[in-house]
Amino acid sequence: MPASPTATPERVKEANVRYHDAAAREYDSKWGIDFGPIGRQQVRGKAEKALGAWPDRPFGDALEIGSGTGYFSLNLLQLGLIERLTATDISPSMLAELRATAARLGLEPRTETVDAERLPFEDRSFDLVFGHAVLHHLPDLEGGLAELHRVLRPGGTLAFCGEPSRYGDLLAAVPKRGAMLAAPIWRLLVGAPARQVDPAERSDGHELEPAVDVHSFRPHRLATMLREAGFEEIRIRGEELLANAYGWTVRTLEGSAEPDEVPRQWRELAFRAYIALQSVDAALLEPRLPAGLFYNLVLSARRPLASRR
Ligand SMILES: C[S@@+](CC[C@H](N)C(=O)[O-])C[C@H]1O[C@@H](n2cnc3c(N)ncnc32)[C@H](O)[C@@H]1O
Predict the structure, then answer these.
(1) Which of 10, 14, 19, 20 to probe ligand 1 with, by most ligand atoms within 8 A of CB?
(2) What is the CA(116)–ligand 1 centre distance, in A?
(3) What's the confidence (pLDDT) of residue 113?
(4) Residue 206: is its pLDDT beyond 80?
């Protein structure tokens, strides 16, 4: 649900820092983030969809905004799509998790805690500017896109995945509500007790969830904003319909139980089913249905070689 229209940009950003700082430690397990073969395969698939194909040559200098714990950028580094990574985020704790994972994987990204709307980088510094599930958190999206355009080199590529579509966001409410109703029966079936919410956890960011999401997107409106920011060769696609409805159902069910009591076999089976549904979406639905129907939008664009600004 988007933030209140009266929330100031500063409040949205402050809420983002508090919410993501509080979420950082459990973030990877909550969202099933993986840095092994499965994670790399997922991220490769998303990048291919956004870019239209896997590029022949890697990008030299790459900047990620809203890197979080590194799901997208560390997997892209491992895949060799980028040579030098600058990973940034407004939340210091998310970046601390990213650094710990990078060290474990033997990777050496540069990291900076920064607001994506005010980047401390020179004009024309990067060949690729990218991100995953972050544009919808930026209060001044027009200003943010202008900033991304500024730091891209002429001919450089912009690529984003995992941005919620307007219609997909509404659709996601259905499985969430259904799963909340079904949760007591599901907990009985898998033998997991109801989650006891720690008051500290409740006052430490979780109540901010509705305050951090400021946009969901209509594809044609997003394309217009990109064009107005100076980009060309804009492509926007939809991603995940069945997988997403299923994913929200599973996350809502699991979130209702004590995390350590959810059986491992359930988690493994649920994850495998999710991956299978992603394949069904990619093979059958994504090529045929309009982008706006899907939960996520993936996009790419280019800064023209002869930029006027
Ligand atoms: C939904 S999380 C996604 C994290 C990561 N990209 C991933 O896909 O796992 C959004 C991230 O954007 C960051 N963020 C929110 N507002 C931001 C801003 N104004 N500037 C930079 N990062 C921001 C949050 O701190 C958070 O880490």
Answers:
(1) 20
(2) 9
(3) 98
(4) no
Answer whether 115 contacts ligand 1 (Cβ < 6 A): yes
Would the pLDDT of 205 be above 90?
no
**CB-based burial, 249-285: b 16+ in 10 Å, e otherwise:** bbbbbbebbeeeebeeebeeebeeebeebbeebbeeb
Q: What is the pLDDT of residues 61-78, one digit of tens each?
A: 999 999 999 999 999 999
Token readout for 13 is 């950003």
Q: Among residues 177, 173, 161, 140, which one has the least CA distance to residue 1? A: 173
* Tens of pLDDT, residues 259-292: 889 999 999 999 899 989 999 999 999 999 999 9
Residue from 18, 137, 160 whose mutation best tests the ligand 1 pocket (most atoms within 8 A of CB): 137
Which two structure tokens, joined as six digits, stand for 225? 């904003």
Give the chain's domains with CATH numbers.
9-302 (3.40.50.150)
Strands 82-89 and 296-302: unpaired
Nearest one of 63, 229, 215 to 139, comparing CA atoms: 215
Q: How many CB atoms lie within 10 A of CB 115?
A: 18
In this structure, what DSSP letter does residue 200 have?
A: H
Distance between Cα 89 and ligand 1 center (Å): 6
Choose among 118, 95, 81: nearest CA to 27: 95
Q: Which of 237, 115, 215, 133 is nearest to 169 (CA)?
A: 215
Q: What are phi and psi of 181, to 5 degrees?
A: -70, -35
pLDDT > 70: percent of the chain: 94
In one letter, which amino acid is 297? Answer: L
Which of 29-33, 104-108, 285-289 reaches the highest mean pLDDT? 104-108
Residue 214 alpha carbon to ligand 1 centre in Å:
12
